[in-house]
Specification:
Number of helices: 6
Largest sheet: 3 strands, mixed
Number of strands: 5
Strand order of the largest sheet: 3-4-5
Order of helices and strands: HEEHEEHEHHH
Distance between the termini: 125 Å
Structural class: alpha+beta
Strand content: 15-25%
Length: 180
């Protein structure tokens, strides 16, 4: 009986080892025929509709942003699947409250399929620049308007070194002396 039990155990292990050796993506074989194993999985990703033009998207995102408390006005620029949302908040809000308002606007935009990739800003200077870019887009010069505003923004961030101003004054004074 021991010999038959050992033989049965070995046979079971060999047969189960052959079954486990088959690759997961490989079809199962039954005799000379192959059995295709296919899994069907339902689509679970949200379907986004992007059939609106950028102007309609900008208006919709601005409407969502102005629906948030403490937001007086919103200006939106849409380019591709990105958007910049400039919010005008009440002047008397302190810094933590402005941050909370920006976060609330971002939460409201996250629910919109095209607002999920938006950047929300509340700096008054940047919001004014966004308004000017938006006006340039409406006038039919989006690239030139964007380039001009970008140059203005970069000009504000460029540091002015005192030694650079001294060199310029000397150069200007030397030019005046040569002209006299």
């Amino acid at each position: 009986m021991n010999k038959s039990l050992i033989a049965l155990t070995v046979l079971t292990l060999v047969l189960s080892g052959c079954q486990m050796g088959r690759q997961q993506g490989e079809p199962a074989r039954q005799g000379n025929t192959q059995i295709q194993q296919t899994e069907r999985v339902p689509q679970t990703a949200k379907q986004t509709k992007t059939n609106q033009d950028s102007q309609a998207t900008a208006e919709r995102l601005a409407k969502l942003a102005t629906g948030v408390p403490n937001v007086n006005d919103a200006t939106v620029i849409v380019f591709g699947d990105m958007a910049i949302v400039g919010i005008d908040v009440r002047a008397k809000l302190d810094r933590p409250r402005v941050g909370t308002t920006k976060y609330t606007v971002a939460e409201a935009l996250r629910e919109d399929p095209q607002g999920a990739a938006a950047i929300v800003v509340a700096d008054p200077d940047v919001v004014q620049r966004i308004r000017e870019i938006n006006q340039d887009i409406k006038r039919g010069r989006p690239v030139a308007g964007f380039a001009e505003e970008l140059a203005d923004i970069a000009g504000r961030f460029m540091p002015q070194l005192p030694r650079d101003t001294a060199e310029k004054r000397q150069t200007q004074n030397q030019g005046r002396a040569a002209n006299q």
